[in-house]
Amino acid sequence: MTLLHRLCWLPLRRVALVNVLLYSLAFPVLAQVNTPVPMHDGVGVDEKAGNNIDLSLTFINEAGQVVPLKQYFDLGKPVLLNLAYYRCPMLCSLVLNGQADAMRKMPIHAGPDYTVLTISIDPTETAELAREKKATYLSGFDKPVSGWSFFVDHNGNAKKLAEQVGFNYRYDTRIEQYSHASVIMVLSPEGKVSRYLYGIQFKPLDLRLALAEAREEKFSFSTEQLLLLCYHFDPKAGSYVMFAMNFMRAGGVLVVLLIAWMIVRLRRMEKARGTLSNQELVGLR
User: Fold this and answer.
1) Radius of gyration from C-alpha coordinates of the chain
2) Averaged pLDDT, 59-63
3) Of 122, 226, 264, 265, most Cβ neighbours within 10 A?
4) How far apart are CA 71 and CA 234, in angstroms?
5) Residues 117 and 177 both lie in one domain
6) b/e string for 154-179 if b means 16 or more Cβ within 10 A?
7) Are 249 and 189 members of one domain?
8) Same domain for 216 and 261?
9) Domain-embedded: residue 157
10) What is the rounded average pLDDT for all residues in the chain?
């Protein structure tokens, strides 16, 4: 008898217990969605928004070439950065899958509108692995993606970059895997850390607004600029929410202007009535 058949024959109380157990096992993964990752045993995220990364750091791209980060910045485009490793058995793939899904659903595109950098934190991984991973993810798009590059470490620079953006990880010798948080980071065109988005699934609107925010100083998307007026990043929710305060402020200004206009109009009406009354009095005389 299969596990499914056995579950079907369980009494209702036991089925409920099984459901609770399954949910408790899934909860750690679900809790990572859009939730900041606190430091634990040297693993987590120490947010460093506003810090500049070292653009002179070099990495090996998927073609086996040593290139500096500066080559991918100073182009007037925001940069989406994620640190992972290509032989990761689960979490890295989940983060990359969620990121790629959000990228496909956005009206803006990697290459002309923003740059994407995926960098391996495992110093033993090769450019061939990066090339295979890139081919896998780019094949999932219905159009060419020119702005997504995959890299491996060079001279220990992956660790230096991780420290600069607050991405703390460690190698677990027991399971021979890297322990790390599920997060992607958005940087300005000049290399300044702008926003962290947590989880394994990302809302296309959140990613779009984070990129727009990072590029705010060199804005060219009027639609994104309008969206930033309507939405505001909520650190507690880890997401962008409708920013009603802007509407309230606009409404308040409108009410004040309306009241001022009514007062001016009433005064003019009173003045006109007063003038008319004086003229009538003069006529009676």
Assistant:
1) 28
2) 97
3) 122
4) 32
5) yes
6) beebbeebbebbbbbbeeeeeeebbb
7) no
8) no
9) yes
10) 79
Please give the Cα distance from 193 to 49 (Å, whole number): 5
CATH code of 98's domain: 3.40.30.10
Closest CA relative to residue 125, chosen from 161, 87, 162: 87
More confident residue, 15 or 204: 204
pLDDT in tens, 134-163: 999 999 999 889 999 999 999 999 999 999
3-state secondary structure of 175: coil
Q: How many domains does the chain have?
A: 3
Beta strand segments in 199-260, E: 231-234, 239-242
| Coil, strand or helix at 141 | coil
Alpha-carbon dihedral 101, 106, 112, 115, rounded to 10 degrees: -50
Judge if 77 and 106 occupy the same domain: yes
Place of tokens 């606009």: 250
Q: Which amino acid is at 115?
A: T
Nearest one of 113, 110, 95, 99 to 203, comparing CA atoms: 99
Greatest Cα pair distance in the chain:
114
pLDDT digits (tens, 9 = 90+) for 77-104: 999 999 999 999 989 999 999 999 999 9
pLDDT at 1: 45
Length of the chain: 285
20 and 139 both lie in a single domain: no
Residues 138 and 160 in one domain: yes
In a domain, 103, yes or no: yes
> What distance in Å separates the CA atoms of residue 186 and residue 225, rounded to the nearest whole number?
17
pLDDT at 112: 94
Is 68 in the same domain as 126? yes
What is the distance, to the nearest Å, from the Cα of residue 242 to the centroid of all Cα atoms in its chain? 16
Range of the domain at 102: 44-242
